[in-house]
Amino acid sequence: MTSANVSPAAAIDRHVVGENIWLCDRNSDAQAELMKHSPQALSYEVLDSEEAVGRAMLDELQRAAQTTAGDLNIVILGGRGGQALHRLLGEKAKTNEIDNLLARLNVFTQDALAPMRKENAFSFVRDFERLLGDSFFGKVRSFTSMQTDADDLESCLIAFLGQLQSQGPIDILFLGMGPEAGGASHLAYIKPGSGAAANDIAGLIPISSDILDHHIKKFKVGGAQTNDVDEAECRGASHILTLGPAAILRARRIVQSIVDAATAPGKVASFDRLTKTEISADPFERARQFDENPGLWIRLNPNVRSLILPDVLKTN
């Protein structure tokens, strides 16, 4: 595994919205980026189990390998949404079944709590290690995570973006969906009211106790081996490092997985609102809609596959 340690491939500007720090592409205009993408209906597939979702996600990787020359750049998903895929990859990595695929993967993370030791049981990296296993990390071309234990988190995030951008476009961005108040939602950790713009590649946003409670709960439900010391450190995290809307808009393919509505029932209302919202053609109204409900960013990418379980759908 490697940490980000190179300069960004594209020029980065910084803008601050309240306590949120966003890193944007200096060479693009936020409003122009927002309006050049046509809204899409979110078509979704209802599968019968979390394992079926994991198999479908692996199929996406294998299909991309068949249709793309050279390396594959992927961004993996933390939390429950990616766990079935990660278990499957970990099992197959112990054999030689998908060695050719693994050898082509440049793997990146999409968000992280900070400050936090990577050894913390509530760290996404530790959960990836637990599920993917040593064989996976020994076979992939590269694995790059956001650094969460440095004094200067912003500089480390810029370096991470440099590593990501130096590899070329994201071939597959695996996303989930987090519930927010009023049926809003977040992608990665782009939170409502955080001021994220269409040309923001990544950001550092302050963390709330509600987010920490949700994070800790989903790790425990997902089977992480936790302890009181790690939980106390996790509850002391002050920020979330996250990819921003520009990463979502520019990804060649997005694969969304939502498998945990049974333990996160707020996702039912959030998914309903995500699929039914009419996205405005007015630039100012559209910007307001996306700041209020960042889950909508997925609907501006024309190449999305959304995989859900039946309990995500409203029944009334």
Number of domains: 1
Alpha plus pi helix count: 11
CATH topology: Rossmann fold
Would you tell me the structural class of the helices and strands?
A: alpha/beta
Please state the CA-atom Rg, rounded to the nearest Å.
18 Å
Say what oligomer this is. single chain
What percent of residues are in strands?
15-25%
Largest sheet: 8 strands, parallel
Provide the CATH top-level class: Alpha Beta
Shape, please? globular
- Topology as a string of helices (H) and strands (E): EEEHEHEHHEEHEHEEEEHHEHEHHE
SS elements, strand count: 15
Q: Uncertain regions: pLDDT < 50 for 5+ in a row?
A: 1-9
Rounded mean pLDDT is: 92
Helix content estimate: 25-40%
**What is the CATH architecture annotation?**
3-Layer(aba) Sandwich
Layout of helices and strands, plus pairs?
Blueprint: E1 2-3, E2 12-17, E3 20-25, H1 30-36, E4 44-46, H2 50-67, E5 72-75, H3 80-93, H4 99-102, E6 105-108, E7 111-114, H5 124-139, E8 142-145, H6 153-166, E9 172-175, E10 178-179, E11 185-186, E12 200-206, H7 209-221, H8 228-235, E13 239-243, H9 245-250, E14 254-258, H10 266-276, H11 283-292, E15 304-308
Parallel strand pairs: 1-8, 4-15, 5-6, 5-9, 6-8, 9-14, 14-15
Antiparallel strand pairs: 2-3, 3-12, 7-13, 10-11, 12-13
Helix pairs in contact: 2-3, 3-5
How is this structure best described in words?
It is built from 11 helices and 15 strands. The protein is 38% helix and 20% strand. It has a single domain (13-142, 169-310), classed as Rossmann fold (3-Layer(aba) Sandwich), CATH 3.40.50.1360. It is of the alpha/beta class. The longest helix has 18 residues, at 50-67. An 8-stranded parallel β-sheet has the order 1-8-6-5-9-14-15-4, sandwiched between helices. The protein has a 5-stranded antiparallel β-sheet with strand order 2-3-12-13-7. A two-stranded antiparallel sheet has the order 10-11. The N and C termini lie far apart (46 Å).
